[in-house]
C-alpha cells in the first residue's frame, strides 16, 4: 500500500466526518487554498478511487432493497446453482461467496434492488424455492429497513491501522448490551413523496448512489445512454438537490488504504429483539470500515479490515455474545465480489416498469 | 522395583501461606493488587489468581519456588480442569504485564465480573503479538527445530558460533518467542491408551451442561469446544487393561443415543510433530510450493512417528512421573525434576531420576521437539480426517512442508493440528477440506481456534490410577463416563 500523505489523511478525515462538504468548504476548514484541495482530491481519486457515494432510501423511489444470505453445510451443487441463479437475475446488484466461514460451512451473501409488485413477489418466491428440495439451502433475507456506513479513520495513521480485535473490543460490546434500550435506534427508511416521474427518480437516485456529487451534465449523459428524455440542466440540478436532501445519505468510498480483506457478519434473531442488533449497529464504528444492513431480526455487517487474521477473534467474540435465540456466522469474503453495472440495472428496471 | 513415594507429611504445609483454591490466592501480593476486582465465584477467582501469579513473578514478589507451590493450590480449583493453564510457563515480559493490567482496568471500567469476561481478559492478555526473528536467531531456531536435544556445544560447533552466543540466543528466544523444549511420550508402555472423540450434542441437550461434565471427568486430558460451531473435541487417557477400552467404547455408544448427536472415536496408534522454518523469512511466512505434488509423491519418507509400543512391564510409576517432566522440558536436569516432583508431593531422589531417564531414553519413548509462539502463526486448525492407510501416508507426506503441525495417527485416520499464518489460513483450510473429494477419504471435519488449548498433564490424571503389576489401572472409585456425564446433566 502506498503511504497516505498527512495532507491526504487530513482531507479524508474531514470528509469522513462530513461527506457533503465540497472542495471550497474543505479548503476553508483546513486553512489551505482551494487549488491545494483540488490537487489532493484528484490524487485521491486517481490513486485510491475516492468517490463520495450514497445510501438511498429505496421505498421513496418505488423500489425495495432485499439483502440476505444462503448457507449450506456440505459443499454441493446447490449453492453453486443458487449463485448462478443470482448472477442471472438483473435485479441482484451484488453477491459475495465465502472463502472460509466460522461455522465451517459455505455461504453466499446477496443484495437486490427490486420494483415493488410482481417482480418482488416472483423474486421472493424463487428464494423460497431454493429452501426446498432438491436444494435445501438455509436462506435468510428481508427488506432493508436501516443501513449505515462508517469509516473510522481515527484508527489509521496513514501507514497502518490500529485495529485488533482485543479483549477491550469484546468488552465494550458486552458492556453495551446492558444499555441496548437507551442506544439510539437506527433511522428507518420511510418513503418520501417526490414530485417526479418514476423512471427519472430511479435514474437520479441510483446515479447519486454511485456519486453523491454527480453533476447535471453527467446525468444527462446517463439519460441519453438509456434512451430517456433528459430535462433541462436547471431542472436536473433542482431534482438532484432535492434528492440529496431527502433520500440520499452520503459516505466516503475509498480503496488502497490498507483494508485488504472483507469479513462479513451475518446475524439472525428469532422472536423479540434482544437488543444485540442495536448494540452492534451502534458499535459499528469500532471497525475500520463497516457497512451495516438491517431489518427487524436480520443484520449483515460487512467490515473491511487490514488483514483477515482478526477474523477468528472477531468471530469468537461475537459468538460469545449470541444467545439461544441469536445465530451469528462470520465469513471471510472471497476477493472481488460480483457487482453488476449500474446502467444494466437501470435498463432492466426501465423495461420492468414500462 | 522403585515405586513412587508420596511425601507423607511435610513439617509445614507451605501452601497455607498463599491461600486456598476456594478462597483464592489472597495472600499472594503484587504491587498491582488495587487493579484486581473483587469477585466471589471460585471460577472467576481462578483466572484472577493466575494473573496474580504472573504479576507476582514478573515484579519479583513471588519467587519461582513459591510460584510452583502456589500453582499446586491453583490446580485444586475445579476451573483448572476446564482450563489447565500454567502462568509459570509464560515468559515474563512487560508487554504481557501491561496487557493484564489494561484488561483488568477494562473489567472494572465496564463492571464485567463474570467468569467468562475474566477468562477472556486472561486469555487475551497472552495472545502473542508478532515479533519478527532476525536472521541469526532464525538460524539457531531452525537448527534446534531439527535437532531439539542437541547440546549447546554441538549447536555452536555446527553453526560456527561461540557456545555463549548460542546460550544467549536460546535464552533470548525463550523470552521473546516462548521457545520451549518439549517431548511427546509413548504412554502405551505404561498400559495407557489415548482416545480422541469428536462430537456434537443433541439439539435438546445444553452444551454448557455437557461441557461442565466433560471438563471435570477425571480422565479428560483436554476438552475443546469452539463458540462458533457445535463440534467438540475430547481427549481421554485411560488404562487400557481390564476391559477399560471396551467399556469406554460402550459408554460412548450409550452417550450417542442420549446426549450426543454425532460422535467419532479414534484410538491413537502413533503421534508426531513437524515444523518447517525454511518457510519463514524476516517476519513473513511463504506458502509451501508443490503441496499437491507432494501428495502424489511416492518416494517421500514422511515425518518421524512415535508409534505405540504397547505395555512394557519393565517400567515403573517413577519412570512415568519422570517422563511426564521430560515432556514439559526435555532439557530438564534431575535436580529440577526432583524439585518439580517435590512440589507435587512426590519424593524422588536425583539418583532415581538419573537412572529412570537412562532407561526411558534407551527405549526411545520420547519424541523431542520445540514449540514457539509469536512468529505470526496465529491461525490454528484441527482437521479430523477419516481415511484409509494410503491417504494417511499421503497426508503425512505433506505435513513436514507446513509451518507447524502435531498429528495423531489413529486406527481410522489421522487428526492433524496445524498452526499457519493468517494470510494463508484460507489456502490451508481449502487444501485440507478438498481431501474429502478423493476416494479413500471418508470425511474431513475442521475446527478452528484462536490458540492451542492447554491440556491437563498426564501426571495429574495419575491421581485417578493405581500402579499395579507394572501398569496403570483405574482406581475402583473412578466413575465410568456415561454414569458421570448423565449424573452431571
Q: What does this protein look like?
A:
By secondary structure, chain A is of the alpha+beta class. Chain A has 12 helices and 12 strands. Chain A has helices at 6-17, 23-30, 34-48, 77-88, 118-131, 167-177, 198-210, 216-225, 233-246, 276-282, 311-321, 342-353, and strands spanning 51-56, 63-72, 92-101, 106-115, 138-143, 146-151, 248-253, 261-269, 289-294, 298-305, 326-333, 338-339. In chain A, strands 2, 3, 4, 5, 6, 8, 9, 10, 11 and 12 form a 10-stranded antiparallel sheet that branches. A two-stranded antiparallel ribbon of chain A has the order 1-7. In chain A, a hairpin with a 4-residue loop joins β3 and β4. In chain A, α7 runs antiparallel to α12 (342-353) and α8 crosses α9 (233-246). Chain B has 489 residues and is an alpha+beta fold. Chain B has helices at residues 42-59, 64-74, 79-82, 94-109, 115-125, 135-146, 152-159, 163-177, 207-216, 244-258, 291-296, 317-328, 334-343, 350-362, 389-398, 425-434, 458-461, 481-488; strands at residues 5-6, 180-185, 192-201, 220-225, 232-239, 260-275, 280-281, 284-285, 306-307, 346-347, 366-371, 379-387, 404-410, 413-420, 441-449, 465-468, 471-474. In chain B, the strands form 5 sheets. In chain B, strands 3, 4, 5, 6, 9, 12, 13, 14 and 15 form a 9-stranded antiparallel sheet that branches. In chain B, β7 and β8 form a beta hairpin. Chain B is globular, with a radius of gyration of 23 Å. The model of chain B has no long low-confidence stretch (mean pLDDT 88). Chain A binds chain B through residues 75, 99-100, 102-104, 166-168, 170-172, 174-175, 307-313, 315-316, 319-320, 329-330, 332, and chain B through 102-103, 106-107, 110-112, 116-117, 120-121, 124-125, 127, 226-229, 231, 378-379, 421-423, 425-426, 429-430, 433, 445-450.
